[in-house]
Amino acid sequence: LLDIDGVQIEILAHDNPELSMISEIKIIEIEDIKIPIISYENAKKFYKMIGIENKVKLIEEHIELLKSFDI
Q1: 28 - beta bridge partners?
Q2: The pTM is what?
Q3: Which residue among 5, 13, 24, 43 is least enclosed by CB atoms within 10 Å?
Q4: What pairing do the DSSP bridges indicate for beta strands 2-4 and 7-9?
Q5: DSSP 8-67
Q6: Which residues, in sequence order, are CB contacts of 20 under 8 Å at separation 6+?
Q7: Does residue 13 register a pLDDT over 80?
Q8: pLDDT over 70 at 2, yes or no
Q9: First vs last Cα of the chain: how many Å apart?
Q10: Cβ partners under 8 Å of residue 39, min gap 6
């Protein structure tokens, strides 16, 4: 987990195949900027596996909003 100018960046490559999310990446474009993302389901799974429960809770609290996005 990195913090670059207040933006959290997670590296989703890992030696453990269960934790590697590289194959799950989807590219979206916002205002001509290409952004690699993973689904909220995979994000929740990843955070749960690495023990970052506050992110799991954040996803669970906003699940309906997240479902409304086509990403």
Answers
A1: 35
A2: 0.68
A3: 5
A4: antiparallel
A5: EE-----SSTTT--GGG-EEEEETTEEEEE--HHHHHHHHHHHT-HHHHHHHHHTHHHHH
A6: 12, 13, 14
A7: no
A8: yes
A9: 22
A10: 24, 26, 71
Contact 27, 35 (CB under 8 A): yes
Write down the pLDDT at residue 36. 86
Residue 35 and residue 16 in contact, taking contact as beta carbons nearer than 8 Å: no
Q: What is the pLDDT of residue 71?
A: 63
Would you put residue 32 in left (φ > 0), alpha (ψ -120 to 50) or beta? left
The overall average pLDDT reported for the chain is 84
